[in-house]
Amino acid sequence: MESKGIGATNTLSAWVGPWGIYYAANITSDSTGIGNWTEEQFLLCLRKRKYKGLATNRTLLPPMPWPGLSLLSDDELKAIFAYLKSTKPIINVVPAAAPPVLAGKR
Ligand code: HEM
Q1: Contact residues of ligand 1, CB 6 A cut-off
Q2: If exposure means fewest CB atoms within 10 Å of the residue's CB, which of 18, 54, 87, 93 is most exposed?
Q3: 0.70 cut: is pTM over it?
Q4: Which candidate, 44, 39, 52, 47, places its Cα nearest to that of 80?
Q5: Do 26 and 94 form a contact (C-beta atoms < 8 A)?
Q6: Strand, helix or coil at 38?
Q7: Cα(64)–Cα(100) distance, rounded to whole angstroms?
Q8: Separation of alpha carbons 48 and 16, rounded Å
Q9: What is the mean pLDDT of the segment spanning 85-90?
C-alpha cells in the first residue's frame, strides 16, 4: 500500500500511502478534539495548514483537502467552527502520524 498507492480504513479515519500512516483528527467539541480551541486557532489551522491552529506547529498532513477549505470566507469558517463546537464531545486521542516503513529501505 505504502509503495504502490493509497488506502484508507472504511471509516476514512486512517490513511496509508507513500507518506506513512496518517490519522484523521478528532474535531468534536471534546477537549481531545477542538473543544479548547479559539476561533483564531481554527482559522489559522484551515488557512495556513497549522496543526492545532498554532503558528509554530507542523503543517497539516495529507489527505486533508486543505487547499479548498482555505478559500472559504472568514464567516464560512466561523460557521463551521460554531457547528463543530456544538457537536457531541467524543473523547478520542488520535494516534500520532507514523512515518513510512519502506522509505528507509529503498
Ligand atoms: C469541511 C471539511 C473538513 C473540516 C472542517 C476538517 C477539519 C479538520 C481540522 C480542524 C483538522 C486539524 C485538527 C488538529 O490540528 O488537531 C483536521 C485534520 C485532518 N483532517 Fe480534516 N477536515 C475536513 C475534511 C477532511 C477530509 C475530507 C479528509 C480526508 C479526505 C480529512 C482528513 C484529515 C486528516 C487525515 C487530518 C489529520 C492531519 C494531521 O494530523 O496533520 N479532513 N481536519
Answers
A1: 15, 22, 24-25, 27, 45, 51-52, 60-61, 63-65, 69, 80, 97
A2: 93
A3: yes
A4: 39
A5: yes
A6: coil
A7: 18
A8: 24
A9: 98
